[in-house]
Write a structure and sequence with these properties.
65% of the residues lie in helices and 5% in strands. A three-stranded antiparallel beta sheet has the order 1-2-3. The chain has a single domain, classed as Orthogonal Bundle (Retinoid X Receptor), CATH 1.10.565. It has nine helices and three strands.
Length: 215
């Protein structure tokens, strides 16, 4: 579908002040979280066959979106927390004060929305792949090739969804809309990152974090 992976243009409002202590705690898990995204991509033969420059563009573009998805699917409605990188449970306020500001609301809202979908590990992996293979990232040279790869995974994804027989009405189109939500989170985070750079000491930013999110 033409609308899959198209990033909406949004203006991120100013968030609250960054809590430096909370930010430093989050930076401890950001490097392994980014590394997991890279490791996931490297397991896809289609991805590894792309030019190195395109691989870098795709990874930089999808990293926040995939990390947000992984956090969102670990939303606990009872405690109203997300689990980051499989190890740190945080509330909406903690995530907001730790640097993400208004982005945290979007991630928590996504988690609440996805909780009724009951996605299994295969569905999460396929959704990550669809996000990774977004052919509209600026600077890509293998656009047609990436688009074909994404279409193959979308077809496999839809077949798997039909096999699973979810009880949610219009499950497939509703799930695809989450890709747009994640693209919005990624775009909002790009603006928020500039805010963090102003408020937080440079030495608190892990090198890999800067490498991925700085232009």
């Amino acid at each position: 579908p033409e609308d899959i992976g198209q990033a909406p243009v949004i203006n991120a409002p100013e968030g609250s002040k960054v809590d430096i202590e909370a930010f430093s705690q989050f930076t401890k898990i950001i490097t392994p979280a980014i590394t997991r995204v890279v490791d996931f991509a490297k397991k896809l033969p289609m991805f590894c066959e792309l030019p190195c420059e395109d691989q870098i563009i795709l990874l930089k573009g999808c990293c926040m979106e995939i990390m947000s998805l992984r956090a969102a699917v670990r939303y606990d409605p009872e405690s109203e927390t997300l689990t980051l990188n499989g190890e740190m449970a945080v509330t909406r306020g903690q995530l907001k004060n730790g640097g993400l500001g208004v982005v945290s609301d979007a991630i928590f809202d996504l988690g609440l929305s996805l909780s009724s979908f009951h996605l299994d590990d295969s569905e999460v992996a396929l959704l990550q792949t669809v996000i990774l293979l977004s052919s509209d990232r600026p600077g890509l040279t293998s656009v047609d090739r990436i688009e074909r790869c994404q279409e193959e995974f979308l077809l496999a994804f839809e077949h798997y969804i039909n096999y699973r027989k979810h009880k949610v009405a219009q499950f497939w189109p509703k799930l695809l809309m989450k890709v747009t939500d994640l693209r919005m989170i990624g775009a909002c985070h790009a603006s928020r990152f500039l805010h963090m750079k102003v408020e937080c000491p440079n030495e608190l930013f892990p090198p890999l974090f800067l490498e991925v999110f700085e232009d």
